[in-house]
Design brief:
Blueprint (H helix, E strand, L loop, with lengths): L1 H56 L5 E5 L4 E7 L5 E9 L2 E6 L1
Antiparallel strand pairs: 1-2, 2-3, 3-4
């Protein structure tokens, strides 16, 4: 009887440990993904600001460029009458955001 009680107690503790470990891994992954989403948003904002500065320096800037420091690709479309459209895509660890100005 004591052996069965000990085995059942050990099994219960093991199950509790596995559930706790799975919960902590899931929480850690959620926190990591949230940090990555925040970083990608900040990288996208910096990329769009950099693209605006690049456009201010070179009025005839048009086409696709990449800014590897921010992990983004920008596409600039211009009609050369003062109208510009800047699309940017930032990606980090599989998380991607798209923005435009």
């Amino acid at each position: 009887m004591a052996l069965i009680a000990t085995v059942m107690l050990a099994t219960g503790v093991l199950a509790f440990c596995i559930v706790t470990l799975a919960s902590s891994v899931m929480y850690s992954d959620m926190v990591y993904r949230k940090e990555i989403r925040i970083q990608v948003g900040l990288n996208l904002r910096a990329c769009l600001d950099t693209a605006e500065l690049m456009l201010g320096r070179d009025y005839f800037l048009s086409g696709t460029s990449s800014i590897p420091e921010f992990g983004c690709i920008i596409h600039v479309a211009s009609d050369f009458n003062g109208n510009h459209l800047i699309d940017a895509t930032a990606e980090l660890s599989g998380v991607k955001q798209i923005g435009h100005i």
